[in-house]
Design brief:
The structure is a homodimer of 354-residue chains. The first copy, chain A, is α/β, with parallel strands linked by helices and 354 residues long. The first copy, chain A, has 9 helices and 14 strands. The model of chain A has no long low-confidence stretch (mean pLDDT 97). Bound molecules: pyridoxal-5'-phosphate (2 copies) and magnesium ion (4 copies).
């Protein structure tokens, strides 16, 4: 029996995507060759890359708005330094919102490049909320935030307006909800939550914000070079791009971001309602900042842990342990997780309270 | 019918590896989850990474000699800049041997970091030979060379001794022949020739050469950080690492590097003998520098091109067009290419000469 996969990332992908990916490893495109043993310059793979990039812009409603979509390597972690390399002026300054471990890592890398101002932080409460009402310094080259905090289960519901460029790490909630994506100048995300397998990094960048820092940027870290080569400056992560393309196509067929948003809202409502109504459970994040992707919760009575864990295991629930820095439980409900899996978890929670 | 795959990279992988990879996409390790939807911190994947790294050191005969094997992202192209970041002292100097387009790209990135001396170049003859008799300046922090020049079909048969660190881009011939790998301080290679699919980069580095430059290195570009986290500083390219592990295991079962070297020598001898003896073909690279991985050759009579191409197609030969900067033909004979495929090509060459 296939498990209910609540893994925080790498994480669940649509079954039809896995099926197609598995087939392509043996015979891609009916060419009698494997997807992973053909040239990335072959027409068949160039078409995959093109389709993947186009789907990204289409799903984010950013077509013909001056944006490029890139598939790179290195994970979101490499973007932590590519962001300042490409956007922080020599002797410049950047503003960061600190909403957790990932923001902090982004901040650490940016500090190697220049002045970094942390406009607000929720570290005082182990990042269980999103700071509000902060100000972005007028001389900041850009403002960086993390839309969804995978570890703590918080999610930004709105984004500040300012004169700075707006940069967002959307690793764990991209393609999960409708937003005006044109408010962002740079979006990046590791593929391994809502988009595909680990090994590809999505970058969506507004072309005209680039090339203005005065820095000499190594080729592999320069967005303009990757744009000019359609993500093929060097050998791309072929398999991860292909599976991302399949997943984006699956999402489009499902009604795109607006379509999945409804399902994601239903899943989150189902689980948070149970967390709130069941006296044995308590949510970790502040209600108004709760993430629709990662729900964090704890038992109100720790002595029930073994019993709950056993029930979860018996029900085939996988990957719901909380991150070590938070404890308790974390149910990640990415796009590909069906409502039935959330229902299975809720059933176990109800069972525990019988 | 499966084709004879002479692709220069990404390139042929063993059929049994493709079979296992395809299965793991649906059900990995009999865990009823896909390889690409489980946490990279799960015991099952941690074991894969460990096994892959150990196999690398074992196959290169570098166990217990102070080396670490890393699986990173970004391709060999990212190593072009990670090399100077990690090994060139602030205000330091590096020496490079220019044997082709890949060397030149490595040189370009290194120049962003300090003084680069090109000790010799074969550009004068479109890189159809390996320069010899050059001197490495005594004050160079390291000497960088490219062991196999994928585009031109040349291969270094020996490596210079000097007081500098020895760095080698082995992207297109790693694991193909016996060498004293302990003469190198840093070896790197994109996976997509002899090791696995695109999307993983192998780095083998002598631990005690690191941490001596005085540079502040961004975390993702710092070998010491990746070593301290066993290649899991961030989410690794799970699929590419897994398939690399399978391919390395396949190689070990075949007798390791010494075992495959015999087969590679036989394949190369078969093809080069035909190139030399057949009046319709001529080799591109100087004989003494010929690559056992990529054989470059041209027709002596260009009017036969259409006929030869048609024969190749009919025989199911794929990927033998030469690189645009060289022209003619290039037959890449990586580890997984069977002798029968080379025989099929040779048969077609003989057929043309009938
Ligand atoms: C919000 C966020 N940012 C960044 C990262 C780091 O991504 P990667 O491992 O791809 O570097 C993660 C990983 O989980 C994440 O959740
Ligand atoms: C010798 C050599 N070095 C470097 C590269 C670049 O590798 P990547 O595309 O993984 O960056 C290649 C690619 O073919 C190569 O053959
Ligand atoms: Mg703006
Ligand atoms: Mg409750
Ligand atoms: Mg030495
Ligand atoms: Mg001849």
């Amino acid at each position: 029996m296939k498990k209910h996969n609540f893994s925080a990332g790498p994480s669940i992908l649509p079954q039809e995507v896995l099926q197609k990916a598995s087939e392509a490893i043996l015979n891609f495109n009916d060419e009698n060759l494997s997807l992973i043993e053909i040239s990335h310059r072959s027409p068949a793979f160039v078409a995959v890359m093109e389709k993947a990039s186009n789907l990204v812009l289409e799903l984010l409603n950013l077509e013909n708005k001056g944006y490029s979509a890139l598939f790179l390597q290195g994970g979101a972690s490499l973007e932590f330094l590519m962001t300042p390399y490409n956007l922080m002026k020599e002797g410049g300054k950047a503003a960061y919102l600190d909403t957790g471990a990932w923001s902090s890592k982004a901040i650490k890398e940016a500090k190697l490049f220049g002045d970094v101002e942390i406009v607000a932080s929720s570290k005082d409460k182990n990042y269980n909320y999103i700071p509000k009402g902060f100000e972005i310094p007028v001389d900041a080259d850009y403002f960086h935030c993390t839309s969804n905090n995978t570890i703590y289960g918080t999610q930004m519901k709105s984004f500040p307006k300012s004169d700075s460029l707006l940069v967002c790490d959307m690793s764990s909630d991209i393609f999960s909800r409708s937003l005006d994506f044109s408010q962002f100048d740079l979006i990046y995300a590791g593929a391994q939550k809502n988009m595909g397998p680990a090994g590809a990094t999505l970058v969506v960048v507004k072309d005209d914000v680039l090339g203005k820092t005065g820095r000499k940027i190594p080729s592999m870290l320069d967005y303009q070079i990757h744009i000019s080569k359609d993500s093929m400056f060097n050998t791309p992560p072929v398999f991860a791009v292909y599976v991302s393309m399949l997943t984006l196509q699956w999402l489009k067929n499902l009604g795109g971001v607006a379509g999945i948003e409804k399902i994601n809202n239903a899943k989150a409502a189902l689980l948070y309602d149970e967390i709130d109504s069941n006296p044995l459970f308590k949510g970790v994040a502040e209600k108004e900042d709760r993430s629709n992707m990662n729900a964090t919760f704890v038992l109100t009575d720790e002595t029930l842990k073994d019993k709950f864990d056993a029930l979860c295991k018996a029900a085939g629930l996988s990957g719901i342990n909380g991150h070590r820095s938070v404890g308790g439980y974390r149910a990640s409900m990415y796009n590909a997780l069906p409502l039935e899996s959330v229902q299975a978890l809720v059933n176990v929670m109800k069972e525990l309270n019988k």
